[in-house]
Amino acid sequence: MAKLINGKEVSAQVKARVAAETEELKKKGIVPGLAVILVGDDPASQVYVRNKKRACEEVGFLSEEYRLAADVTQDELLSLIESLNARSDISGILVQLPLPKHLDEKAVLNVISPLKDVDAFQPVNVGRIMIGDYHFLPCTPAGVMELLKSADVDLCGKRAVVIGRSNIVGKPMAMLLMHENATVTICHSRTKDLPSVCREADVLVAAIGKAKFVTADFVKPGAAVIDVGMNRDENGKLCGDVDFDSVEPVAGCITPVPGGVGPMTIAMLMQNTLMAAKIQNGMIK
Ligand SMILES: Nc1nc2c(c(=O)[nH]1)N[C@@H](CN(C=O)c1ccc(C(=O)N[C@@H](CCC(=O)O)C(=O)O)cc1)CN2
């Protein structure tokens, strides 16, 4: 039976570390602040934004929430971000994704100050990750790395396969695994004989957005299996990209959904916001 990697536990540890550091910063008169912008009324996004606010309260940050109508114009959204860029009490700015179709996501992310870009989606920060000289990492891949560390998964010289090539998860995930000296393959919808490529992996990260797509025949016995997916099954129940019941007897360790990568995304956002506050107060160059 695989060892279960508990994202709730590890995320609580990360948030406790952030809370302790925040208490120290407050003694110096510095209060980290996060502004979250939500456009429209997507129910899942509303839950995530609410949870981000709750996490800010838990670690002692100031938090502001901006709920904009689904038909907000590009110009209105850009001017809100520009006004937040200029505020010294706001350390981090996050635009909840996905955005409604009429908004240009790239242009929106581009206008966030790289120093306040706690999602690490702004092109300057994406480039810094490429060259391994970064302050911020995208929250989900950073959370995966933290989970692998918590499970003592050694990456050096190991084969890692990432299924999914999104800008938010797949591509940065591959980069972070490579920075830790894994040999990385990125797979996607056009990959030929996907199960056999995945069976080469000592570490398999599933980020495809298809419910229970990864079955036991994708998994090398003893592999670490990380499930980034967040889907609903045929009964409306939350499930990942990994068919947990079939994979769990084969894997060495595995993350569940819920309670795996998801909670880490928000914990790493708190870590990035703390980092942003330190940068803006000249504590980190
Ligand atoms: N600007 C961003 N937008 C989005 C991001 C992001 O990192 N930045 N990631 C996802 C959504 N997301 C955070 O925003 C997120 C998704 C899931 C969870 C989570 O804790 N999931 C729980 C289950 C929650 C439930 O019951 O519905 C779990 O896995 O245990 C946190 C954050 C897309 N957008």
UniProtKB/TrEMBL annotation:
GO function term, MF aspect, one: methylenetetrahydrofolate dehydrogenase (NADP+) activity
EC number, UniProt record: 1.5.1.5, 3.5.4.9
Family annotation (SUPFAM superfamilies): Aminoacid dehydrogenase-like, N-terminal domain (SSF53223), NAD(P)-binding Rossmann-fold domains (SSF51735)
Matches recorded under CDD domains: NAD_bind_m-THF_DH_Cyclohyd
Pathway listed: One-carbon metabolism; tetrahydrofolate interconversion
Origin superkingdom: Bacteria
Catalytic activity: (6R)-5,10-methylene-5,6,7,8-tetrahydrofolate + NADP(+) = (6R)-5,10-methenyltetrahydrofolate + NADPH; (6R)-5,10-methenyltetrahydrofolate + H2O = (6R)-10-formyltetrahydrofolate + H(+)
GO CC annotations, alphabetized: cytosol
Keyword Amino-acid biosynthesis applies: yes
Listed name of the protein: Bifunctional protein FolD
Organism expressing this protein natively: Solibaculum mannosilyticum
This protein's encoding gene: folD
